Each structure stands twice: as C-alpha cells, then as structure tokens.
Amino acid sequence: MDVSATYTFDAPRQRVWDLLTDPAAIAGCLPGCDSMEAAGDDTWRATMTIGVAAITGRYDGTVRMTDQQPPERYTLNVAGRGRPGFVNGSATLTLAEEDGGSRTRVTVAGQAQVGGTIARFGQRLLGGVSKMTMDRFFACLQQRAADS
Predict the structure, then answer these.
(1) Can you give the pTM of this predicted structure?
(2) Which of 86, 87, 122, 142 is deepest in the core (most CB within 10 A)?
(3) How far apart (Å, rounded) are the C-alpha atoms in residues 14 and 134?
(4) For the stretch 74-98, what's the b/e string if a residue is b when 16 or more beta carbons lie within 10 angstroms of its beta carbon?
(5) What is the mean pLDDT of the chain?
(6) pLDDT for residue 31
(7) Which of 143, 64, 70, 75 has its CA nearest to residue 107?
(8) Could you tell me whether strands 73-82 and 85-98 are parallel, antiparallel, or unpaired per DSSP bridges?
(9) 121 near 55, Cβ under 8 Å?
(10) Averaged pLDDT for residues 15-21
(11) Can you tell me the mean pLDDT for 21-25?
(12) What residue spans define the domains of the chain?
C-alpha cells in the first residue's frame, strides 16, 4: 500500500523539524500510541492500539529514523506485530520552506505492508484508516507548532 500526503505548517522549517524528530511530540500526537521508549540511537520501542472496522489490536514494534538530513528530510521505518497481524513500512518526510521561511510544507511518501487478520478482513479500509491517522497526527503537530 502506498502512502503519500502533503501538510503545511505555519511555522519555520527548524521548528517543524524539531517536532517531527521529538519522540514525546510524536507519541503525544500519534493516534493509538500507548507508549514510546528509547531503544538506541534514533530507535524507539512503541506500543499502539489500532482498530480497523471491527478488528482492534495492540501492536508492539520499533520505530527508527534513518537517512537524516536536518532540517530537510529523514526516513521513518516502522515494524510492528500484534495479534491481528503485522505492519511494516517506511516513509520519507521532506520539509521545504515556503513564504520566505515563515511556513513549511511537509511531504510524506512511503509504503506499508500489512498482513494477518487485519489485512484479510480490513483490506478495503486500510487506505482510509491510514490517511485518517496521518491527518490526525499532522493536525496535532500543526497545532503544537502554532502554539510554540
């Protein structure tokens, strides 16, 4: 499944970068995130509760930031497993200045693989659920950037 979206922040690129690389901000804005703990350099263990249709499950996994080029881009790698199945994926986040640096455009492009019960029964809904989750996550971060 391909994942792509663009979000605009009313904040300078460095402030947006700082939010997008802050584990506390990420955990606080990520819908369903129960915990996120450091597991090494740029790597975290995360626990999430995610529901697709009537299938809800708890996932344990890792989140890792790679290919960092501050404050322009990085790749986020995610691997999670739970009773309803598994989720593996990666996305590159690219930050570009707009309006002379007072605004920032964040472009997300990636892929995810989903398997198990959640894929068999919720396949048609996965695209919509992932888009809604991303929209909620970035709306929360946009609010935090505006409040800073």
Answers:
(1) 0.91
(2) 87
(3) 21
(4) bbbbbbbebebbbbebbbebebebe
(5) 91
(6) 87
(7) 75
(8) antiparallel
(9) yes
(10) 96
(11) 94
(12) 2-147
| CA 17/CA 87 separation, integer angstroms | 25
Contact 122, 52 (CB under 8 A): yes
Interval 110-134: pLDDT, tens: 998 888 887 776 666 777 778 888 9
- The band of 43, judged by pLDDT with boundaries at 50, 70 and 90, is very high
Alpha-carbon span 56 to 116, nearest angstrom? 13
What superfamily would CATH give domain 2-147? Answer: START domain (3.30.530.20)
The answer to whether residues 85 and 117 touch, using CB atoms and an 8 Å cutoff, is: yes
First to last CA, the chain: 34
- DSSP class of residue 101 equals G
- Hey, what are 47's tokens? 């626990």
Q: Which amino acid appears at position 26 of this protein?
A: I
Contacts with 29 (C-beta within 8 Å, 6 or more apart), sequence order: 136, 137, 140, 141, 144
Which region, left, alpha or beta, applies to residue 30 given φ > 0 means left and ψ of -120 to 50 means alpha?
A: beta
